[in-house]
Amino acid sequence: MSAPLSFTAMADTDDWPVASIMAGVSTAPLRHALDLARFFPGHAPALSDIMLFETRRHLAGCLAATEIALRQALVAAPSVAPILTALPDAIVWPAIQAHPALLSSSLLSHMRLRAGVSLMLRQQGHAADEEDLAADSLDLTTASDPAISECAVALTLAEGRWTTPGAEGAPMRPDLPAEQFVDLIWTAAAPFCAALARTGMVVQERALAAVETGARMLMSQQDESNGAIAIADRLVRLLGQRADAPALLAAALAQRQMLFFAALAARRVRLDTSGLLGILLDGPLVEVAAICHLLGGSASDYRLLLLTLQPARAGLSDAVILAEAERFDAMPGAQADAIVATLRAPKALRAGLALIDRTSAAGASAG
Q1: Residue 43 to residue 49: CA distance in whole angstroms
Q2: Distance (Å, whole) CA 6 – CA 11
């Protein structure tokens, strides 16, 4: 049996340009290092995966909008305001491309989630089967309750911002959750501060102080309740018990309103919406199947769910979807319950359990 490649050995392969990233991520998880290598391939052949492009588009767009806001905030800083006109038009995104290790795992994961949702939302039409009748009555923007209709309109607008086509680097509103927004601000602030200091027109201490002040001002102005996922959660809360109607969940899936579907599903299986979306987009299919079981879905529902996920999950070929749908009914209810119960556990606990499972499996195969 050949020994597994070490992290250093992988830097010498043609497939992954890890060497250009290793210096900055020596303490980062291996998965994140490989993610960075995929999204910022350096001299490696460009990947054609639409998810890579869409993730980069969201990341570059949010960073571009943050850079614009940071420049505006620094106009009020006497020590650096006169220097702003001497800086290049774009600093942050080129710096990220040159130094991918500036990105955190959390921020990149969030952008990948946004990208996957965007690809699914762009699908046109809906399934031509029994869900059609339910789907026809889903328009909550015309609900009699003003709070529900206003929230539904806000969700439609937020989804539109995510799905509007644009070039990489076109500014996009950074409507991120609080944790990722703070991460985004500091990620943008670092190369901007370095650019100011490199002009030689201001000492680094003053550049640091000015950029930190501007960054903290932007953080104080952020309202995470305006994010698309937060709005979807709010809409479900406003619906109350009406959100538990099976027809509503089926209609959301049939019309591919994935943020609303995810928020409805998360309420039922007692997961947070972002976590559930992450499982749908990147988790093992057995976990996706378990969630569908707990939602009361049939093999037909599961097939429709996988078809909806197909643009965002490269491995979901038509053949795989048909095979998974055929296996769906064979999953025992107790197994589905156990899988979702594990998914409800804290992330650190799940990571530990997964590590133990992988180690045990490796030991068993070696023996």
Answers
A1: 17
A2: 9
Report the alpha-carbon distance of residue 124 to residue 71 in Å, rounded: 38
What are the tokens at 338? 């156990």
The pTM of the whole model exceeds 0.85 = no
Instruction: For residue range 161-210, list pLDDT tens digits in order.
Output: 999 888 888 999 999 999 999 999 999 999 999 999 888 888 888 989 99
Say which amino acid occupies 12: D
Q: Which two tokens stand for residue 158?
A: 């937020």
Amino acid at 364: A
Residue with tokens 């979702």: 340
Q: Which helix (H) or strand (E) holds 27?
A: none
CA distance 310 to 119: 9
Sign of CA pseudo-dihedral 342, 347, 349, 355 = positive
Mean pLDDT lowest for which of 10-14, 27-31, 65-69, 338-342?
10-14
Going by C-beta distance under 8 Å and a sequence separation of 6 or more, which residues neighbour residue 220? none
pLDDT digits (tens, 9 = 90+) for 209-264: 999 999 999 999 999 899 999 999 999 999 999 999 999 999 999 999 999 999 99
**Short-list 113, 110, 116, 121, CA closest to 258:** 121
Range 359-365 contact pairs with CB under 8 angstroms and sequence separation of 24 or more: none
Contacts of 41 (CB under 8 A, 6+ apart): 17, 47
pLDDT tops 60 at residue 124: no
What is the separation, in whole angstroms, between the first and last Cα of the chain? 12
Residue 175 near residue 161, CB atoms below 8 Å: yes
Structure tokens at 367: 């023996």
Per-residue tokens: 133: 């009748």
What is the rounded CA–CA span in Å between residue 135 and residue 305? 15
More confident residue, 2 or 155: 155
Helices and strands counted in the chain (H then E): 19, 0
Measure Cα distances from 214 to 71, 189, 193 in Å: 8, 9, 11
Give, in order, the Cα–Cα distances in Å from 308 to each of 61, 120, 253, 290: 25, 6, 8, 17
Lowest mean pLDDT among 54-58, 126-130, 357-361: 126-130
